[in-house]
UniProtKB/TrEMBL annotation:
It comes from Cephus cinctus. One of its GO terms (biological process) is xenobiotic metabolic process. Residues 1-24 form the signal peptide. This is Cytochrome P450-1. Keywords: Endoplasmic reticulum, Heme, Iron, Membrane, Metal-binding, Microsome, Monooxygenase, Oxidoreductase, Signal, Transmembrane, Transmembrane helix. The gene is P450-1.
């Protein structure tokens, strides 16, 4: 009996070796892929050693002297791409527009190939185009959006006016949520238990997906053998919670829906469901839930964490903060809030925003993409259905483009006193999968960041070590929790001025 079991295991391993082989002559180089598990353990070990998956992939590119690295995670054939040329080809190539449909993405999408982030095909193109048009209709990228964000700046300034030692993330997260919530639902989520519940739900969900995503993506069968250990049960509970939360909002809109009076994203979608293109074109309740999920997951997390990194960099580089505030004082003053129209006249501020995002991009590895047909990339043959990981970090930290890339130097984007955009940066992606929320993200980052620094000085907490740029790795990266001393600028004392100097 034992001999039979052992023989069966050996046969399975042999078959796995055969299945994992058969690579084409021009297939990219990469580490040896072990039967059944592939490269999961090598990649995790490298990520732990170097401080994140983006750094692990960069190390593999260095070891194999190639910008394209072949990996196998469980049953998935993957390539990881670094360097400007290869990444540009992927972001702009239609053959790379697909999305994989592995166990992790199925769970993330509640089992539905819906929404605008993790789906593909004709329905995705139709729905994504509709979302972009509809967001514009409710003020996306126009003055209405600016007014909404400025209202949130007022709330944040009021929250911070007493100063003292604070963590910035809990202060700015509600502002980001309320801007998105207003565009989607027509009103603020406001303060209180409902907002707090939603913030905690999104935070817990993000942590759970960070911990469980890799396991379930690589070993999907773990959901059956070890649903608790793999995190599957926890993820399913979070999915149910957030779906119920969003359905409550959708049902409120359905009860109050009036044809011809659609003034927010949900009402506009209901209009398509009831009297527009309908279910045949993909306008269903499930689709609406996933659209809202995509908007909130992408918008809230990335914008909030990007702001958190910005404030951290200002505390670490108080001299840069002072120069920025001098520029804001000269152009905007302190009596009125900044406007988006001020942006072209604040080149150093723009450079600070860009430099922080270059060094601290929340999603240093973007994707994943699915190759829709056999193709070639940098001389390598890439088969159909290969999953592609895009290491944008490799471009943003390339010393050939950015000398001393680890140093925070906003001046690198200033020429003759003018801010010069950098074509190498890919802060919001490119091509047809470029972030549809770019206008909102850029506007929210500018108005919230400048509005806060117009009113307050952010300093290291006296008696404590100045925070450092330590990151928490995961599906996205974020700074380790830190505190700052918030000082209202109108109340700055001589002592505080000396600290700034």
């Amino acid at each position: 009996m034992f001999t039979d079991i052992l023989l069966a295991i050996v046969v399975l391993l042999f078959v796995a070796c055969i299945l994992s082989g058969g690579k084409s002559k021009n297939y990219p180089p990469g580490p040896y892929s072990w039967p059944l598990v592939g490269n999961i353990y090598q990649l995790r070990k490298l990520a732990c050693t170097h401080g994140g998956q983006h750094l692990a992939l960069l190390e593999l590119s260095r070891r194999y002297s190639s910008d394209v690295i072949a990996l196998r995670l469980g049953r998935q054939n993957m390539i990881a791409v670094s360097g400007y040329e290869g990444i540009q080809t992927i972001l702009n190539g239609q053959e790379y527009e697909g999305r994989p449909w592995n166990e992790f993405i199925k769970i993330r999408n509640m089992g539905m190939r819906k929404g605008i982030t993790m789906s593909d095909g004709p329905e995705w193109k139709e729905i994504r185009a509709w979302v972009v048009r509809s967001l514009r209709s409710v003020g996306f990228g126009r003055r209405e959006m600016s007014v909404m964000i400025k209202d949130e700046v007022v709330h944040v300034v009021e929250n911070l006016k007493v100063g003292g030692v604070r963590s910035m993330k809990p202060v700015i997260a509600p502002a980001v949520i309320n801007v998105l919530w207003t565009m989607a639902t027509g009103k603020r989520l406001c303060e209180g238990p409902r907002l707090q519940y939603f913030m905690e739900l999104m935070e817990r969900r993000a942590k759970a997906f960070d911990m469980s995503g890799g396991i379930l993506s690589t070993f999907p069968w773990m959901r059956y053998l070890a649903p608790e250990f793999s995190g599957y049960n926890v993820l399913m509970v979070f999915n149910e919670e957030i779906k119920n939360f969003l359905m409550d909002i959708i049902n409120e809109h359905k009860e109050n829906y009036t044809p011809g009076n659609e003034d927010d994203l949900i009402d506009m979608f209901l209009g398509e469901m009831y009297s527009g293109k309908g279910a045949k074109a993909g306008f269903t309740e499930d689709q609406l839930v996933m659209i809202l999920m995509d908007l909130f997951i992408a918008g809230i997390t990335t914008t909030t964490v990007t702001l958190d990194f910005l404030f951290l960099n200002m505390v670490m580089h108080v001299d840069k903060q002072k120069r920025l505030q001098q520029e804001v004082d000269a152009i905007v003053g302190r009596e009125r809030l900044p406007e988006l129209s001020d942006r072209p006249n604040l080149p150093y501020t723009e450079a600070v925003l860009t430099e922080s995002q270059r060094i601290c991009m929340v999603t240093p590895v973007i994707g994943p993409r699915r190759v829709l047909s056999d193709t070639e990339l940098l001389g390598y043959t890439i088969p159909e259905n290969t999953t592609v990981l895009i290491n944008v970090y490799s471009v943003h930290m390339d010393p050939l483009h950015y000398p001393e890339p680890e140093k925070f130097k906003p001046e690198r984007f200033i020429k003759d006193g003018v801010y010069v955009p950098d074509e190498n940066l890919m802060l919001f992606g490119r091509g047809r999968r470029r972030c549809p929320g770019e206008a909102l993200a850029r506007s929210a980052l500018f108005l919230l960041f400048v509005g806060i620094l117009q009113k307050f000085v952010l300093l290291p907490v006296p008696g404590k070590q100045t925070p450092t740029l330590d990151i928490v790795p995961g599906l996205t990266i974020s700074p380790k929790p830190y505190e700052v001393l918030v000082v209202p600028r109108d109340n700055c004392t001589n002592g505080t001025s000396k600290l700034i100097d």
